[in-house]
Each structure stands twice: as C-alpha cells, then as structure tokens.
C-alpha cells in the first residue's frame, strides 16, 4: 500500500531558480529520466548544461530535442561518458579542465538481464550503477568545490551532488554482505554466484551506502550531497526484461508508473531547492524518507564503511588517483 500511495503522490513543478551563472551536469542525459531532468533544469536558464552520454550521436539528438525548451539560449554541451569504463570516467572529468560544476546529477544506470562484464572486468550493473558512479562522484569533488568558492548571489543554489537512488534498494537480499572485508565485491563479480533478480537492487543499495559514506567525508558547507529516488517511472530501464518478470513490470508500469517528467522533478527538486538538512539523506516524493531497515541498522553502518574501503581498494588497483578529491588527507 505504501508503494501505491507513493506512486499516486502528485509531484509539483519545481520553481525556477537563478542558474544563469551556473554549470549543470547530468549523466545518462540522452533519454528517459536524464533527458526529462535536462528539460526541467532548462526552466531555470542555466549558463551551461552538460549532457554526459555514452553515445554521442544520441546525445546530439537529445540536444536538438531540448532546443525548444531552451528559450534563454543556454549553452548545451554533449560529452562522452561511459561508466562501464574507468578510463572513460577519468577522461570525462579531465575534459572539464577543472572548471566549476555547480550542480551534478548522477542519473546514468542500467538493469541487465544476464551476467555481462565490462572492459575493466566487472559485472556490468555493478560497474555502471556503483563503481563507475562512485568514481565519478569522487573525481567531480574538485569541480564542485571550485563552484563553492565562487561568490553566491540570492536565489542561487549551493553546489549539489545529487546521486539518483531507487526505492528498490529496500528489496535487496544481498547475502554477500556477510562475507569478510575484501571479499564482497569479488563475490558479486563471480558469475557462479550471480543472482539476476537481486543485482539491480543490490547495486542501488551499494550506491546509497557510498553516497552516505561520501557525505560523511564532505561537509555540507561545501557541497550538499543527497540521494533522491524518482519513483517507478515510465522509462526504458526495463526494456531488456522478458518473460513473466518483464510482463509483470510492464503491466505495473502501465497501471502505476509515474511519468518521466514527474520523476525528473523529484531529482531537480533535490538538486536545486534542498538545503543542508538533506545532506547524506535519502529522499522520495521530494521529502526525506527513511532508508531500508538494513541501511539504518548497526550492521548497515558497518557495511557502509566496509564497502567504502572495498571500493577504494579497486580504484587503487586500477591506478586511479583520487587524492585531489580529498586535498587535506
């Protein structure tokens, strides 16, 4: 009943703010939630909007689609970003050349129906939804801090790092979490231990834990970090689902699915209007909501730090330098 009630909640339009001197970055911005988020952001007339996409051709098509929603003539850049490839993530951030990023909305994600691996050797959902997004969030911190150092005028939001969450994190079974430190991600990357129905919820749970860990290391006076869930939306996320599970999902979407526009408004609300009180927290329907019981438990607190360490160890293993993200460390 809670799910049905939340899906039927009316999502209001987000009041425009002054983004005329701001740079907004959205990942997975060529379709679905990402594209609608870009459309909603344009109501606030950003100085610059960066569409981070895996396919530049589709990104340029998205830019054309957004032209009609861009009366202020905001500069819209299309940049290549593939979160299934650590080198692509690093190249993307390097391409920003240290320029300030005022608002970063990390939306890109996948839901695969079978075990596939990336060029870096990780299961695809695990890398795109968790490892790649975590790396991007780390590498963007200097850009967000550069934005925080700028003089701020009234009605201009503080720098925000908004990492898109999902209510499905509550459904994660995640038995691998009970393994000793250093073994959890290896187990998730083992095809013999792969459980398709649990994979997407697990990656969204891991992403939520990462965001909470990151927010504990970055003061809200610098950057406001939060995890809004857009709800169950009518997008292409489930396009590869087949069989009974696919049928049930598509039926549920037809009956209860929220529009991509309404889902996008939940993300834009978190990125533009929410204040320090939401730092490190999970939001749904534009309000702070409790995370899953696991996340809030003592076990969840320990798991949060255990997974932070495992994730950082992977970055070290791939010779990725994240020292600039924490200059005082």
TrEMBL record:
Q: List UniProt keywords, sorted A-Z.
A: Oxidoreductase
GO MF, any single term: oxidoreductase activity
User: What InterPro entries does the annotation carry?
Assistant: NAD(P)-bd_dom_sf (IPR036291), SDR_fam (IPR002347)
Indicate yes or no for the key word Oxidoreductase: yes
SUPFAM superfamilies hit by this protein = NAD(P)-binding Rossmann-fold domains
Please verify whether the record's keywords include Oxidoreductase.
Answer: yes
Q: What is this protein called?
A: Ketoreductase (KR) domain-containing protein
In its UniProt entry, the species of origin is given as Oidiodendron maius (strain Zn)
């Amino acid at each position: 009943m809670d799910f049905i009630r939340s899906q039927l909640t009316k999502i209001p339009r987000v009041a425009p703010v002054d983004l005329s001197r701001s740079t907004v970055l959205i990942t997975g911005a060529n379709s679905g939630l990402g594209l609608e988020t870009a459309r909603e952001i344009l109501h606030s007339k950003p100085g610059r909007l960066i569409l981070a996409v895996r396919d530049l051709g589709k990104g340029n098509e998205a830019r054309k689609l957004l032209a009609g929603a861009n009366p202020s003539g905001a500069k819209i850049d299309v940049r290549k970003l593939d979160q299934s490839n650590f080198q692509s993530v690093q190249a993307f951030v390097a391409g920003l050349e240290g320029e300030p990023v005022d608002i970063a909305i990390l939306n890109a994600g996948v839901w695969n129906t079978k075990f596939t691996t990336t060029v870096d050797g990780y299961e695809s959902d695990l890398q795109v939804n968790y490892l790649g997004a975590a790396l991007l969030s780390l590498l963007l911190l200097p850009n967000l801090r550069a934005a925080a150092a700028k003089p701020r005028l009234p009605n201009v939001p503080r720098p925000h790092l908004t990492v898109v969450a999902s209510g499905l994190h509550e459904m994660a079974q995640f038995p691998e979490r009970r393994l000793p430190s250093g073994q959890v991600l290896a187990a998730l990357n083992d095809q013999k231990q792969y459980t398709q129905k649990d994979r997407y919820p697990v990656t969204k749970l891991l992403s939520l834990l990462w965001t909470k860990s990151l927010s504990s290391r970055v003061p809200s006076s610098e950057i406001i970090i939060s995890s809004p869930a857009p709800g169950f939306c009518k997008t292409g996320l489930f396009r590869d689902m087949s069989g009974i599970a696919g049928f049930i999902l598509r039926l549920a979407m037809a009956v209860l699915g929220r529009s991509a526009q309404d889902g996008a408004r939940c993300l834009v609300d978190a990125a533009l209007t929410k204040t320090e009180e939401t730092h490190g927290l999970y939001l749904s329907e534009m309000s702070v909501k409790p995370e899953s019981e696991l996340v809030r438990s003592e076990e969840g607190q320990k798991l949060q730090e255990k997974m932070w360490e495992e994730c950082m160890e992977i970055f070290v293993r791939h010779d990725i330098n994240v020292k600039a993200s924490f200059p005082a460390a």
